[in-house]
Write a structure and sequence with these properties.
19 strands, 21% helix, globular
């Protein structure tokens, strides 16, 4: 007789049965606190029956809203993983009502490689949604979130920062949505996160993004950009830790009330916010993050890196506002974003 395949999620799986080969080693519908993994079979040269093990923590206490909290969507961004590891260690079932699902490094292969994209398949998780259950490792991770985790959630918080190539003023953001009731709920959650800056975000390309999939499913979604340069700072880690607890209190999951601090409201109304380099070379920042910018101001210049005697190329802002992002580190390539200028919201 032909061999029969094991049912999806196998005997050890405690999550819902799907076509995706990922198995959860923790329960989602049992009260308590559980640490474990999303185990994704991955056969490779050094492990014929190997697996990618994505760390996960689930904390549940009775009926109530579900928060899905993710970091490491890009593997070189660290505020989210720091804050979510802290939350997974200290949060107890007695602290909450409902359920909190914590994944400090949702793109674990990229996180362990300190890379924006996965070293396994060279895919950017945040451009792979909705994913495929029979696709590459990154596509399978995206599919599991799309078909299993996001449908469980009422609220999704996905941490980002600039990684190795950008630096940002620390902000939490939402997007403009067709469903205005959903948009209003997202804005309220962003305000509750209470980062030093609060943004209405314009994406250059939202096709395949986690954000797009979560919002398509009608969920409340908050994302962040909390710094950059391929590291975290003491202040950016504090913003992340405080923001998580604020939104959990906002949704009534965590006991307590949100104490708001002043936040500067920003908007990205169009593509004139972005300044792209058309040259490769040595970048000289002309303004620092958070500085006021007037349309036409030079925000960066690019020097030739292979010879002397050439004047730099100046790059000017196309709108007035504040410098919310800059290129990082010191060398730039043609096509790179060198600066982003956000408008002050009215």
């Amino acid at each position: 007789m032909p061999r029969q395949r094991a049912a999806p999620h196998g005997r050890e799986g405690v999550g819902p049965v799907t076509a995706n080969p990922i198995v959860s080693t923790v329960p989602f519908d049992r009260d308590g606190k559980f640490h474990g993994f999303l185990r994704l079979p991955y056969s490779r040269d050094d492990s014929a029956w190997g697996s990618v093990m994505v760390p996960i923590c689930v904390v549940r206490n009775g009926e109530g809203p579900t928060a899905l909290l993710t970091g490491g969507n890009h593997g070189d961004e660290y505020e989210g993983p720091i804050a979510l590891q802290d939350l997974a260690l200290y949060l107890t079932p007695e602290d909450i009502r409902g359920r909190v699902i914590i994944l400090p490094a949702m793109n674990y292969p990229a996180f362990t490689g300190a890379r924006r994209v996965s070293p396994i398949d060279q895919r950017n998780l945040n451009r792979c949604f909705p994913g495929r259950p029979d696709g590459t490792v990154t596509e399978k991770i995206a599919d599991y979130f799309t078909t299993v985790l996001v449908p469980m959630a009422d609220f999704v918080l996905d941490f980002h920062s600039g990684g190795k190539t950008l630096d940002f003023v620390p902000f939490a953001s939402s997007h403009v949505l067709e469903n205005k009731a959903q948009q209003a709920a997202c804005i309220a959650a962003v305000k509750a996160f209470n980062a030093p800056y609060t943004m209405t975000m314009l994406e250059i390309d939202n096709v395949g993004m986690y954000d797009t999939e979560v919002e398509k499913q009608g969920k409340i979604f908050v994302t962040t950009e909390l710094g950059g340069g391929g590291t975290a700072t003491a202040s950016s880690a504090r913003v992340a830790k405080r923001g998580i607890r604020n939104v959990l209190m906002h949704f009534g999951i965590l006991k307590g009330s949100v104490a708001l601090e002043p936040s500067i409201f920003l908007d990205m109304p169009d593509h004139n916010c972005f300044v792209f380099s058309e040259h490769s070379g040595l970048i000289e920042p002309v303004m620092d993050l958070g500085e006021a910018v007037t349309e036409g101001d030079v925000v960066a210049r690019v020097w030739a890196s292979d010879r002397t005697g050439l004047a730099p190329v100046d790059y000017a802002a196309k709108r007035s506002g504040i410098l919310m992002s800059r290129h990082f580190p010191g060398l730039v390539q043609s096509g790179d974003c060198v600066a982003v200028v956000a408008a002050l919201a009215e």
